Amino acid sequence: MLFPPEKLLLDAAVVAARRLPEDGTGLHTVAAAVMDVDGRVHTGVNVHHFTGGPCAEMVALGVAAAAGALPVAGIVAVGDGGRGVLAPCGRCRQVLVDQHPDALVIVPDGADLVVVRARELLPYAYERREAAPPRLLRFAARHWDAVVAGTKTATTRFRDPSRPGPVTLLFEFDDRLRSLRGTVESVEQVRFAEITDEQAAPENCTADQLRDALRTHHYPGIGDGDVVDLVQFRVAGPAPAN
């Protein structure tokens, strides 16, 4: 299921793919669209060459960077001739893992489309020790006011790793994205069944209430032995205008 921002991203890639020339040269056969954390969309197309021209995803990432539009919130590639959504190649996956691990990627899954985080495309990726890509911490739109007011400063995540340091707090509204500059102050890992009332207190609830909310609204399949991240964060200011 695609939400409105992802549909907007896909539509932009489809439009760009339809503009590709059908001249038989095969120089430009794939279009890609990138959405930044402000909801702006940037497109690019591949440049085929026997020496190894860049994929459409790489061109679109370069276009976004040239516009000062980082970090990246989402990306998708579409083939010409009505071929539909294409999954990134191995090289593009490695680049996304290195540079935008929290970006959402639209990929085909049989006859359907699914949305996965870039890091999930390459589960055993090589990770450079010195790499420090921009990180995203995503929230539902209903949390915007509480985060801005400073009354929500904690979140519990499952299979959604965070680490201390600068982060973009990204809020997914129905028709757009909004972002804030933030800092992850601490990340504590604990087994789901072993969350204490003290650990749940920053979320303004008891441990049982937190477990019930997580199972009901976010992670229905989570087990007692699964490990979750208890993330403490703060707002550092509005995201810089690009």
Characterization of the model:
The chain is an alpha+beta fold and 242 residues long. The protein has 6 helices and 11 strands. It has helices at residues 4-18, 56-66, 90-99, 144-149, 197-200, 207-218, and strands at 30-36, 41-45, 72-79, 84-86, 104-109, 112-117, 136-140, 154-157, 165-172, 177-191, 227-238. The strands form 2 sheets. Strands 1, 2, 3, 4, 5 and 6 form a 6-stranded mixed beta sheet that branches. A 5-stranded mixed beta sheet has the order 7-9-10-11-8. Strand 9 and strand 10 (177-191) form a beta hairpin. The longest helix has 15 residues, at 4-18. It is elongated and about 65 Å long. It starts with a helix and ends with a strand. The mean pLDDT is 93.
